[in-house]
C-alpha cells in the first residue's frame, strides 16, 4: 500500500498552511521498521526529509558532520546502544529514543543522556510520531535557549567585581558568583545556613544576621558596612526577592581611604597657614576662571571673605604695581595647562600691596580632563622687603664706592628707613660746621618739610638755635618726642607749625655719629608719625642699625668728596688745578659761543723761581707759591678764574668785552700791581716778577688746546722780551728762532743718539728691597747740555715727535730690563706712555713687538698713564684692555690730581696707581692730618679694588714711615734714590 492510500492519513485541505520542512535522521537497524517510520512521517507531513542509518558508528560519524532537526534513535543497535551514540556524538539537535516496549527505566536513562523524548515502537501513528518529533525539536530549542541564557547570566555575574549571593528564606545558599566565592572562600554549589556559617562566620554573625532577617521581615532593601577578615571594608546591600534574598558585597576600602584622605586634606586646607584658592579651569582668557573655594588663610592674607571672592576672578587681587611680564608668564602657563611658580605683587582689600609666592597646578578628573586650578599662595612680603632692603644696602655701598653725591646717599638711606619702619615719614639732616641742613626726606606727601624752607625750618644754626635736632647733635643721643603738641617741648622756630600742618604729631631724632669720638655727629635722622607715640623696640633697633650704616656711608662719602675737592684743587695753593681749570675753560668757551662774550686765556710763569727753589729750598718755593696765589686771587675779578697748572705756572680765564688793546693794558697794570711789592719768605724779602701770555677768542682759537698753546707761546715771548705781558702773535711766533731751532734739534735727537734713559729705583715698602725702576727720558743736547723734560716733552707732544720718542723709550727700557733679568729676574720696569701715543693705532703692536724682541715677561713691564688719557682719548678703554691682554701691568700716574679719578678706578682695567707727590708735601706723620687721612683713604680704597699703590716724591724719613704705616706697597723718591743712567744704577748683590 502506498503512503497516500493508508486509511489513517487525514484528508488534506488546500486551505491548511504548509508545514516547514523537517530534517530527520532515523537510526534503525531494521529496514522494515525504518521504512515504516519514514512513511508515517511523510503521510503526516510530505515535506519531511529523512535519512536512514542502520549502525551506531555511522550515526556518530554523520552527526559529527551534519546537524539534522531531530534524531529518531533506536535504543538497541547492532554495534552499540542508543545511549552510547548519545554519549559519543553529543548531537546538537533534538533526540527521540525508540524502545520496543514501554520501559520506564530506559526512558529515564535516555532523558538523562540528553534525549528530549522517547516513543514505543508498537504505539506509533503518523500524526503522533510527527507530533512527538516536533515537540522534541521545540523542547530542544527551549532547553538550548535556557542554557544559553543561563550561561550568559553566569558569565555576567562572573564578570561583576561585586560579590553576589542568592539565599532562600531559610538563609541557605542557592548561588554565589566567582567574586563572592573568592571573597568568602566558599566551595561551589549550594550550602545550608549552618554550612554557610561554618565557612564565613565573620559575615553571618549576629549583626549582619539581623540585617538579613530584617530584610525578610520588612521586604525592604537594607544597607550596611562589614569589615572583612583581611581588614577590608565591604558595602553590603540586601534585596528581598520572591525566592529569598539577593546580597551584594562591594569592597569600599579604597573609597573609605580616599574619603579619609579627602577629609584630612580638607582639614589641612581649612587650617593651612598658606592661602588656598580653587577655581574653575576655564576660561583662562577674558575675565579668567571663577573662584569656587578659598580657605581662612586667604581671608587673613587678602581681607576678602569667601562670599566676596567666590564666583569672581582672582584677578581682582591685581593692581597698578602688578608686574605685567610676570602676569603674562602666568597666563601663558595656564593656556598650556602647565604648573605656575611665580612671585607676584597683589593687593589687600584695603589697597595695601602684598607680595605673594604663587603656586598653581591643574587638577584633572578620572578621565584626564582638567576641571580646576588649585592655587597655594604664600605671603612673602616680608621676604621681599628684606631682599629689597638688602639690595638697597648693597646699592648704597656701591654708590658710596662710586663716589655718588652725599644727597643721593641720604635719599637712599631715607628710603631704606621708610621701608623698615612701615612707611613713616623720614628726613635726613647733614651737618656742615655749625649749620644743620635738611638734605633729604621720604613719604612727606604734603612735602611740608621742604615747603617750609622760607620759614627757616630746613636749616638749624647749632650755635644759636634750639630744638630736637640741635639737642641730638649736642648730646649725641636720640631724642624721642611722643607728641609735638606738648607746650613744654622746645622746637626750632616754625617747625611745630610745619609738622602739624603736614599731619605729623610725633618726632624721633637720632644722631649719625662719627667714628671719631671727639667729633660731633655727621648729621641727624628725624622720623615722624601721624599718631602721637614712641617707637617700638623693633623700630628703635632698626633705626640704630641704619644710623650705623649711615655713619659708614657718610664718612666714606665725605672723605671722597674731600678727596675729589683736593683732586680738583691744588693742595698747596687752594686754587683750581689743571683738571678743574680745563672744565671751567670748556664751560666758558661754550657760553661765549652762545652769548658772544670774548675770553682771554692766560698762561703765567714766575721769573727766577728755579733760582729761589734751588737756593732757599723747596719749602721756601712752596711758601712763595702760596703767597703768589693769594695775590693773584686778590688782583683779578671774582668772575675771573685763576688756577695753578703745576710748578710755578698759573693759568687764567679772563672774560672781557672792550677793545683787546685796552684790555691788555688793564691786565698789564694789574700784573704790575700784583708783583710790585716784595714777598716775605722765611724772613727774607723777595722781589719776583712774572711773564703772562694771552690768547683771545675767537682770534687765536675756539678750543682749549689751541688757546693754551697760543698762550704758552705768547708767555715765552713775554719772558724773552721782558715785557711782562704778551698777546699771541702768529707771525712773531713763526719767526722765533729759539723754538724753531729746538724743534729742529729734537727731530734729530734720535738720529744723533742724544736721548738717553735714566732710571729711578722703586723699593718695596717695609723691607726697602729694590723691586724695579722707572724709566725717565733725558735729552743731552750737544750744544745746550741737558735739556729739561719740562721743555722738550711738551714740544714733542705738540709736534708729534712723541710717537717715535715714545717707541724708542719703550724699546730701550725693555732692552735694559732684559739685561738686568740675567742676574735679577725679579725686577720690574715702569715706562710712561704719553696721551698722544694712545691716538696711534699701532700702540698695542709696538708694545707687543718690544716685549717679543727682548723676550721679557710681560708681567714685569708696567705702563704708566695719566688721567688725561682716560679723559680725552675716546677709545682709551678698548686700548687699555688690549694692552692688559698682553699681560702687562697698567698704573694710573699722578693719582688725585685729576677730576674723576675714583670712577676710573672702577671702569678701566688698571692694576696699580701712583699717588701724586703733591699729597706728600703736607705729610708730617700726624694721623689726624688732612693729607694723612686722604692718603690713608686712598690706600684703603685701592686695596679694596686690588690695586697696587706706589707713592712718589718721598723726600723725608717721616714721609716714608707714614706711607709704610698705612699699607703703601712701593716707595719712590729722592730719599731712597735719584734717577741715574743705567751704568750708575745700583743692583743688589
Automatic annotation (TrEMBL):
Domain annotation EAL: ranges: 739-989
Q: Which UniProt keywords apply?
A: Kinase, Phosphoprotein, Transferase
Stretches assigned to the PAC domain: 338-392
Q: Which residues form the GGDEF domain?
A: 597-730
Q: Which InterPro entries match?
A: Biofilm_reg_signaling, CheY-like_superfamily, EAL_dom, EAL_sf, GAF, GAF-like_dom_sf, GGDEF_dom, Nucleotide_cyclase
Positions of the Response regulatory domain = 23-136
Residues in PAS domain copies: 149-186, 257-313
Chain positions found as 4-aspartylphosphate: 74
Q: Which domain of life is it from?
A: Bacteria
One matching Pfam family, short form?
PAS_9
Thylakoid among keywords = no
Q: What is this protein called?
A: Bifunctional diguanylate cyclase/phosphodiesterase
Amino acid at each position: 500500500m502506498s503512503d497516500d492510500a493508508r486509511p489513517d492519513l487525514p484528508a488534506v485541505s488546500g486551505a491548511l498552511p504548509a508545514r516547514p520542512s523537517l530534517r530527520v535522521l532515523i537510526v534503525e537497524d531494521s529496514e522494515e521498521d525504518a521504512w515504516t517510520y519514514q512513511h508515517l512521517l511523510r503521510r503526516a507531513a510530505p515535506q519531511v526529509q529523512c535519512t536512514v542509518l542502520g549502525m551506531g558508528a555511522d550515526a556518530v560519524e554523520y552527526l559529527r558532520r551534519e546537524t539534522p532537526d531531530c534524531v529518531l534513535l533506536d535504543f538497541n543497535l547492532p554495534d552499540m546502544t542508543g545511549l552510547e551514540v548519545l554519549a559519543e556524538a553529543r548531537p546538537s539537535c533534538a533526540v527521540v529514543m525508540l524502545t520496543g516496549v514501554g520501559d520506564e527505566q530506559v526512558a529515564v536513562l535516555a532523558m538523562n543522556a540528553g534525549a528530549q523524548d522517547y516513543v514505543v515502537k508498537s504505539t506509533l501513528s503518523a500524526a503522533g510520531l510527527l507530533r512527538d518529533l516536533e515537540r522534541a525539536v521545540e523542547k530542544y530549542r527551549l532547553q538550548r535557549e535556557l542554557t544559553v541564557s543561563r550561561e550568559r547570566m553566569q558569565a555576567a555575574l562572573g564578570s561583576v567585581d561585586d560579590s553576589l549571593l542568592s539565599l532562600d528564606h531559610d538563609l541557605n545558599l542557592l548561588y554565589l558568583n566567582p567574586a563572592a566565592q573568592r571573597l568568602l572562600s566558599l566551595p561551589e554549589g549550594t550550602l545550608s545556613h549552618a554550612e554557610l556559617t561554618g565557612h564565613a562566620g565573620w559575615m553571618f554573625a549576629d549583626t549582619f544576621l539581623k540585617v538579613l532577617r530584617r530584610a525578610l521581615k520588612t521586604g525592604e532593601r537594607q544597607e550596611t558596612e562589614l569589615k572583612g577578615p583581611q581588614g577590608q571594608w565591604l558595602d553590603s546591600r540586601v534585596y528581598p526577592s520572591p525566592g529569598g534574598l539577593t546580597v551584594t558585597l562591594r569592597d569600599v576600602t579604597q573609597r573609605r581611604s580616599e574619603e579619609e584622605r579627602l577629609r584630612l586634606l580638607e582639614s589641612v586646607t581649612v587650617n593651612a597657614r598658606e592661602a588656598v584658592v580653587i577655581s574653575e579651569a576655564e576660561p583662562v582668557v577674558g575675565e579668567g576662571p571663577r573662584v569656587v573655594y578659598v580657605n581662612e588663610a586667604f581671608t587673613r592674607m587678602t581681607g576678602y571673605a569667601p562670599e566676596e571672592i567666590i564666583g569672581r576672578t582672582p584677578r581682582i587681587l591685581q593692581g597698578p604695581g602688578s608686574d605685567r611680564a610676570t602676569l603674562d608668564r602666568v597666563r601663558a602657563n595656564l593656556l598650556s595647562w602647565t604648573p605656575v611658580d611665580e612671585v607676584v605683587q597683589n593687593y589687600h582689600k584695603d589697597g595695601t600691596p602684598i607680595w605673594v609666592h604663587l603656586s598653581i597646578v591643574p587638577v584633572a578628573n578620572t578621565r584626564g580632563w582638567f576641571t580646576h586650578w588649585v592655587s597655594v599662595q604664600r605671603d612673602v612680603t616680608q621676604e621681599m622687603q628684606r631682599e629689597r632692603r638688602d639690595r638697597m644696602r648693597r646699592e648704597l655701598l656701591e654708590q658710596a664706592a662710586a663716589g655718588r653725591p652725599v644727597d643721593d646717599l641720604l635719599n637712599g638711606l631715607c628710603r631704606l628707613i621708610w621701608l623698615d619702619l612701615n612707611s613713616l615719614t623720614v628726613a635726613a639732616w647733614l651737618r656742615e660746621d655749625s649749620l644743620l641742613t635738611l638734605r633729604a626726606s621720604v613719604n612727606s606727601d604734603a612735602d611740608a618739610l621742604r615747603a617750609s624752607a622760607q620759614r627757616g625750618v630746613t636749616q638749624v644754626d647749632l650755635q644759636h638755635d634750639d630744638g630736637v635736632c640741635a639737642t641730638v647733635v649736642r648730646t649725641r643721643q636720640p631724642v624721642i618726642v611722643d607728641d609735638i603738641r606738648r607746650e613744654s617741648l622746645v622746637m626750632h622756630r616754625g617747625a611745630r607749625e610745619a609738622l602739624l600742618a603736614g599731619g605729623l604729631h610725633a618726632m624721633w631724632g637720632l644722631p649719625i655719629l662719627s667714628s671719631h669720638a671727639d667729633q660731633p655727629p655727621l648729621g641727624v635722622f628725624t622720623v615722624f608719625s601721624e599718631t602721637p607715640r614712641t617707637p617700638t623696640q623693633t623700630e628703635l633697633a632698626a633705626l640704630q642699625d641704619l644710623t650705623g650704616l649711615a655713619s659708614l656711608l657718610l664718612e666714606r662719602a665725605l672723605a671722597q668728596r674731600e678727596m675729589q675737592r683736593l683732586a680738583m684743587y691744588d693742595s698747596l695753593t687752594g686754587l683750581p688745578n689743571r683738571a678743574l681749570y680745563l672744565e671751567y675753560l670748556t664751560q666758558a668757551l661754550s657760553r661765549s659761543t652762545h652769548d658772544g662774550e670774548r675770553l682771554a686765556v692766560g698762561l703765567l710763569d714766575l721769573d727766577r723761581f728755579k733760582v729761589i727753589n734751588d737756593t732757599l729750598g723747596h719749602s721756601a718755593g712752596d711758601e712763595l707759591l702760596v703767597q703768589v696765589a693769594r695775590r693773584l686771587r686778590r688782583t683779578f675779578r671774582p668772575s675771573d678764574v685763576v688756577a695753578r697748572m703745576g710748578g710755578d705756572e698759573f693759568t687764567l680765564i679772563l672774560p672781557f668785552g672792550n677793545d683787546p688793546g685796552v684790555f691788555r693794558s688793564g691786565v698789564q697794570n694789574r700784573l704790575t700791581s700784583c708783583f710790585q711789592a716784595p714777598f716775605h719768605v722765611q724772613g727774607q724779602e723777595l722781589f719776583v716778577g712774572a711773564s703772562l701770555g694771552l690768547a683771545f677768542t675767537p682770534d687765536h682759537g675756539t678750543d682749549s688746546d689751541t688757546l693754551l698753546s697760543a698762550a704758552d707761546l705768547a708767555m715765552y715771548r713775554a719772558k724773552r722780551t721782558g715785557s711782562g705781558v704778551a698777546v699771541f702773535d702768529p707771525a712773531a711766533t713763526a719767526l722765533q728762532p729759539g723754538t724753531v731751532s729746538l724743534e729742529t734739534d729734537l727731530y734729530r735727537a734720535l738720529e744723533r743718539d742724544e736721548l738717553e734713559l735714566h732710571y729711578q729705583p722703586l723699593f718695596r715698602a717695609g723691607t726697602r728691597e729694590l723691586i724695579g725702576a722707572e724709566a725717565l727720558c733725558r735729552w743731552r743736547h750737544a750744544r745746550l747740555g741737558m735739556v729739561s723734560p719740562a721743555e722738550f716733552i711738551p714740544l714733542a707732544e705738540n709736534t708729534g715727535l712723541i710717537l717715535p720718542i715714545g717707541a724708542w723709550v719703550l724699546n730701550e727700557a725693555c732692552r735694559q730690563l732684559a739685561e738686568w733679568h740675567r742676574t735679577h729676574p725679579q725686577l720690574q720696569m715702569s715706562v710712561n706712555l704719553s696721551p698722544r701715543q694712545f691716538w696711534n693705532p699701532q700702540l698695542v703692536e709696538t708694545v707687543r713687538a718690544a716685549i717679543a724682541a727682548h723676550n721679557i715677561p710681560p708681567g714685569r713691564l708696567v705702563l704708566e698713564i695719566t688721567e688725561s688719557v682716560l679723559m680725552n682719548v675716546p677709545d682709551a678703554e678698548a686700548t687699555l684692555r688690549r694692552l692688559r691682554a698682553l699681560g702687562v701691568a697698567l698704573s694710573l700716574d699722578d693719582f688725585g690730581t685729576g677730576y674723576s679719578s675714583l670712577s676710573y678706578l672702577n671702569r678701566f682695567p688698571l692694576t696699580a696707581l701712583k699717588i701724586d707727590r703733591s699729597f706728600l708735601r703736607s705729610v708730617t706723620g700726624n694721623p689726624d692730618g688732612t693729607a694723612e687721612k686722604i692718603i690713608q683713604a686712598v690706600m684703603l680704597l685701592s686695596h679694596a679694588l686690588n690695586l697696587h699703590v706706589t707713592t712718589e716724591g718721598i723726600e723725608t724719613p717721616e714721609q716714608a714711615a707714614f706711607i709704610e704705616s698705612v699699607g703703601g706697597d712701593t716707595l719712590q723718591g729722592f730719599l731712597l734714590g735719584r734717577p741715574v743712567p743705567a751704568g750708575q744704577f745700583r743692583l743688589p748683590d
